Structures are given as structure tokens and as C-alpha cells.
Amino acid sequence: MIYNNLLIKDKEGIIHTHCSYNNTIITATDKIGNTINWSSGGTKDVKGARRSTTFAAQSAAMRVGEYLRTQGIEKVHLFLKGVGSGRNAVAKGLQISGLKVLTVTDKTPVPYNGCRPCKRRRV
């Protein structure tokens, strides 16, 4: 019960988004880092190759946003990670659900001449 009171009093959350070429995973946490809710492109109706579309990412973000609104969270900080097509759709889905996005931060990992990359894909 104390945990729920903290959420209502704080009214700010953090959204972590992992956008890959195959799926988009959205995780909502509080400021400490405890997971409140999560959703992905394939959790509801979308299966197969359509998980990577912007529609799937937007609908997943709307589901997370609606749950956060019921918990009393109104403002969120958005952290984007990955290069998938759902990056822009996540912010749009959160705004449609009624949340106010305070900051947008890109946390895509970039190698600084680390390991040798994989062989290039043939087209």
C-alpha cells in the first residue's frame, strides 16, 4: 500500500523503450526504477512481422499510458533505445493517452571502436 501512495504523490514516471527491427518493448518505471507496467508490440493482437510497425508501437504505448493515468501519473520522462521504426510512434501514443512527456533522451548504444561488427547482410 505504501508503494501505491508513493506513485500517487509523485505523479512522475519514467518510460524506457527498446525499439528493434522486430519488436518494440515499452517499460514504465517509477523514479527509483521499480517496474510499474510494460507492454510490447505483440502483447495484444498484433503478431508476426506486424509487431515492428509503428501502429503496434503506438498501441502498446497507449496501453501503458492509460494504465499510468489510472495510477495517478501524469508526467513522464522518455528514454529511447534502438533503431526500430517505433521510436517516434511511442511518444505520439503516450501523448494520445493523456500523458505529458517532459523529456526525450536517446540512449542507443554506440560502439567506440569496440568489437568487430558482424558480417554485412546481403541484399
The CATH homologous superfamily is termed Ribosomal protein S11/S14
Number of contiguous helices: 3
Named CATH architecture: 2-Layer Sandwich
Per CATH, what is the topology? Nucleotidyltransferase, domain 5
Task: Tally the structural domains.
Answer: 1
Largest sheet: 5 strands, mixed
Rg (C-alpha, Å): 16 Å
Q: What is the C-level CATH assignment? A: Alpha Beta
Q: Can you give the mean pLDDT? A: 87
- Shape estimate: globular
Distance between the termini: 55 Å
Helix content: 25-40%
What is the subunit arrangement here?
single chain
Q: Keywords, please?
A:
123 residues, globular, Nucleotidyltransferase, domain 5, alpha/beta
Task: Give a description of the structure.
- This protein has 123 residues and is an alpha/beta fold.
- The chain has a single domain, classed as Nucleotidyltransferase, domain 5.
- It is built from three helices and five strands.
- Strand 2 and strand 3 form a beta hairpin.
- Helix 2 packs parallel to helix 3.
- It is globular, with a radius of gyration of 16 Å.
- The termini are far apart.
Describe this structure in a few short sentences:
The protein is α/β, with parallel strands linked by helices. The protein has 3 helices and 5 strands; from the N terminus they run αβββαβαβ.
